[in-house]
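[worker-b] picked up task from shared queue
[worker-b] task type: protein-ligand structure
[worker-b] ligand name resolved to 2-oxoglutaric acid; SMILES cross-checked against name lookup, match
[worker-b] sequence length check passed
[worker-b] input payload:
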Amino acid sequence: MKSPQKLTPKYVHVPRFAAGSKESIEYLDSEGYVVIANALSETEANHALDLTWDFLKELGTGVDRNDVDTWDDDQWPVNVHGGIVPSQGIGHSAAQWYIRSVPAVKKAFATVWDDEDLLVSFDGMALWRPTDINPMWATDRGGAWLHIDQHPISRPGRQCVQGAVTLTRTSPEIGGNIVVPGSHKWFADIHKRYADRLASIPVDQDHFRFPTDDPQLKDTPPIMAHMEPGDMMLWDSRTVHCSSPGTGPVPKTDPAAPKLLRAASLVCMMPKAHSNEDVMAMRRKAVLDRLSTTNWSDRWINADQFPMVLEAGDPTKYRLPPVPDLDENQRAMVG
Ligand SMILES: O=C(O)CCC(=O)C(=O)O
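[worker-b] inference finished, payload out:
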């Protein structure tokens, strides 16, 4: 079997489209992903980054934005796979609620679904710490966790479009999100190609690791699209994707002004019509309990119960953010 490390994504500049444009939808339909230019302005992206640091500080473990010595795992929130912080209240942080409320973010999703009545995920964020300070902070390498986020049998067709709003500029050295262009069109055959593998995956599990020795990847290798601060990548949950560090070396950290290599907000909106009253009742309670979720809003999935989160140690050492004071628009997105 091919070693995952050999599957090196190609860093490319792809077309970037306005939120809500017809062209963005055509590109998403054909390629399985699309980059929305400046869903947040650079000023909004910087504000969201400040709010992200407020969240990290308010965890109460001593994380200090200006002191990289306080960013190690004993103080940092639990992170999984590609440096994603999925829990400890992040889904209800002021940063995440701010990003979800920026009109262009909703507009992009509303155009995908041709529906304004959307529920938002209570997702987390990819927060990559500088690997020149600690190489152990490197995220999983692209290829190690190439996946789709939709069960190939129980969820046929387009069911979900995921998003990642980057607050920082990507570069070939740093890395970022990777996608396999057009691979959403492979989805319908997965149950035939990988019947054995699928047999061991519960039908309600929307995560399928895509084999890195699949011959289709030879002709269509993964790409890593350049993203400016505030850009949002949208991808169909059937599209093969993940994230990966770049080729390095990463920018040298200034100890007087340390920075995250990457900060990206995971955000996903689906039609409310795909959900139901029981799920929405759980979601309203999740706001009060500050529980995070995966990308799916049509089903209740509690990210604070991820095995990797539970195994990572004592969740009570982190203080939760305050219960968010949601406006009417935000409450409508809870359901
Ligand atoms: O952009 C990233 O960090 C990867 C996100 C991802 O793979 C996912 O949310 O499924």
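[worker-b] attaching auto-annotations
[worker-b] The longest helix spans residues 42-58.
[worker-b] releasing lock
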